[in-house]
């Protein structure tokens, strides 16, 4: 086992693969070819003298040896990044929190919390990125995020099956809503009956991976007609405004819809609840993490999204 020749590039590639879950996704996020990612992973596994990633049909997963190397990789890369911040006269590591968030949380909740922090806690430096729940959970486990805003749908299972369990707090639980064009017949009432959703045209998220059919009302007893596919929430809502179809909307996005869209509850079937979760690794949080978590909880209250009666 000899890590003396392992490059920082190989460490960054290894962390990206662990976070993204596939070589293809890691290559896209880094701007590399898939073969370049494979070569870097092969080099670090040769240095470790062990297989660090379990290759599976649905992607990759860290082995026991991979988890050891990932812990050390995170320390090394965080120290390098901290040095770069200090040299750039940016706030030091002690006041920095790495936050991950869902696209729906990034539309309203995250900007509101960060704006409040700039007024009340200007020394706190928040960095981070948007992602889907599975990718954000992997980033938490890899140690490259301190906090993450995740989503959960019934039956509300834990975000993953790894041990120890993540520390998870429910920030809000609200019903899923429906976005319809204001010119659509369904926009005339105060709610939509679930029976009226049959034979509608839908605007959905990515048709592969974790976003499969995100945007179709759950549990429809027919094969939905997909009119458009778009990753971005704003793009989907503008397509709705243009009369191109319907899409589902988390409650957190209700205040951010563009003109031409009406957001309505759906009745007549099981209530489709969605939870917004705040998750972190189970070790004691730093003061900076605690302050950011408090700002996010306050932002939830300010956006008129009621919090559950008790929170851990």
Provide an overview of this structure.
With 312 residues, the chain is of the alpha/beta class. The protein folds into 3 domains: 8-65, Winged helix-like DNA-binding domain superfamily/Winged helix DNA-binding domain (Arc Repressor Mutant, subunit A, Orthogonal Bundle), CATH 1.10.10; 91-167 and 274-302, Periplasmic binding protein-like II (D-Maltodextrin-Binding Protein, domain 2), CATH 3.40.190.10; 177-271, 3-Layer(aba) Sandwich (D-Maltodextrin-Binding Protein, domain 2). Helix content is 36%, strand content 22%. It contains 9 helices and 14 strands. The chain has helices spanning 8-20, 23-30, 34-48, 64-87, 103-107, 109-120, 133-142, 233-241, 287-302; strands at 53-56, 59-62, 96-101, 125-130, 147-152, 167-175, 177-181, 192-193, 201-204, 225-229, 247-249, 261-264, 266-267, 273-280. The strands form 5 sheets. It has a 5-stranded mixed sheet, with helices on both faces. The chain has a 3-stranded antiparallel sheet with strand order 11-7-12. Strands 1-2 form a two-stranded antiparallel sheet. α1 packs across α3 (34-48) and α1 packs across α4 (64-87). The longest helix is centred in the N-terminal third of the chain and has 24 residues, at 64-87. It is globular. The N and C termini lie far apart (43 Å). The model is unreliable at 88-93, 207-211 and 305-312 (pLDDT under 50).
